[in-house]
Design goal:
The complex is a heterodimer. Chain A is of the alpha/beta class. In chain A, 38% of the residues lie in helices and 14% in strands. Chain A has helices at residues 2-15, 27-32, 55-71, and strands spanning 19-24, 37-40, 77-80. Chain A is globular, with a radius of gyration of 13 Å. By secondary structure, chain B is α/β, with parallel strands linked by helices. Chain B folds into two domains: 3-38; 58-181, no CATH class. Chain B has helices at residues 3-6, 9-18, 20-37, 112-116, 124-132, 152-155, 162-172; strands spanning 62-67, 71-73, 90-94, 102-104, 138-139, 142-146, 177-181. In chain B, strands 1, 3, 5, 6 and 7 form a five-stranded mixed beta sheet that branches. In chain B, strands 2-4 form a two-stranded antiparallel sheet. The radius of gyration of chain B is 24 Å and the shape is elongated. The chains are: A alpha/beta, B alpha/beta.
């Protein structure tokens, strides 16, 4: 349900001329109502950015979101992110100033 | 053997449901359910989403967070978690909020991880760090939070919908990009 509201609100924000990126934890719901740009993660509910305190993991997901903002050009794209919950190790992420 | 089994109730019921009367009953029941659900469906399924190409450099962009995880600031009214169809109001969260003052009113996802570190659902501190590093131009004055909500038709109503209210406020604040997180 949260994923559905995310798609709906993202569509409205985008229609006001802002770029939006939505994380999704439920691909099936996100497919029904497409947000302008969606990143699907196989992470548990209640933790779309990753584990508590894992700053590198949070930054990795944020980096993906900002990349999606500029790279995804097709409205309604759902990109599957390859990260696994705990089995991946997340290194420091440098943001090169956009 | 009890009466229920002796009358072969399930066998009769199965036979009835396989007959043309049963098919009629199921079809009518299904249309009734669809009719009842119509007022709360947003009518957006299958529609192509709007699209605004993002051309600004991230180091010059103003970024906002919007989450549907039911967070609010201590002192604000919590979301109504008892309403059958949910709560379509929103809370404005100042971007310099003290994270220890954030609370959650939402009953449809586990809160343990977010209670330990709010950034896993609402990366407000991570965004602040990126602004300090000058990787991101700035954070919006306010971020926004929604609760669990099934009034989706009302949410996106152009005249009164809270999604429009939030989008207008973000636009007025000069926001270029919005990051959305579910629960």
């Amino acid at each position: 349900m949260c994923n559905r509201a995310v798609s709906l609100i993202a569509r409205v924000a985008e229609s006001y001329g802002m770029g939006t990126v939505a994380l999704s934890l439920n691909r099936e719901i996100s497919e029904k109502i497409l947000a302008p740009r969606t990143l699907y993660l196989r992470f548990p509910y209640g933790a779309p950015l990753g584990e508590p305190g894992n700053v590198n993991q949070h930054r990795t997901i944020l980096r993906e979101m900002f990349d999606a903002l500029t790279c995804l050009k097709e409205p309604g794209t759902i990109m599957d992110l390859p990260y696994r919950w705990r089995r991946d190790t997340y290194g420091p992420v440098e943001f090169g100033g956009g | 053997m009890n009466l229920f089994a002796r009358l072969k109730v399930w066998e009769r019921f199965g036979r009835l449901m396989n007959s043309k009367y049963g098919v009629w009953f199921i079809n009518t029941f299904r249309s009734a359910v669809e009719l009842l659900m119509k007022p709360i469906a947003a009518g957006e399924e299958g529609k192509a989403p709007p699209f605004t190409p993002f051309t600004k450099s991230l180091s010059e962009a103003k970024v906002a967070l919007v989450t549907t995880t039911g967070i609010y600031v201590e002192g604000q009214e919590p979301f109504d978690v008892d309403a059958a169809l949910g709560d379509s109001t929103f809370r404005a969260i100042p971007s310099d909020v003290e994270v220890s003052a954030l609370r959650i009113a939402h009953t449809h996802y586990p809160h343990e991880r977010a209670e330990e570190d709010i950034n896993v659902i609402f990366p407000v501190q991570r965004l602040r760090e990126l602004v300090e590093e000058k990787a991101v131009g700035g954070a919006a004055s306010y971020h926004y939070s929604f609760g669990f909500d099934l009034h989706v038709k009302e949410l996106v109503n152009p005249a009164s919908g809270t999604a429009h209210e939030v989008a207008r406020a973000l636009k007025e604040d000069g926001v270029d990009a919005v990051l959305f997180t579910p629960g």
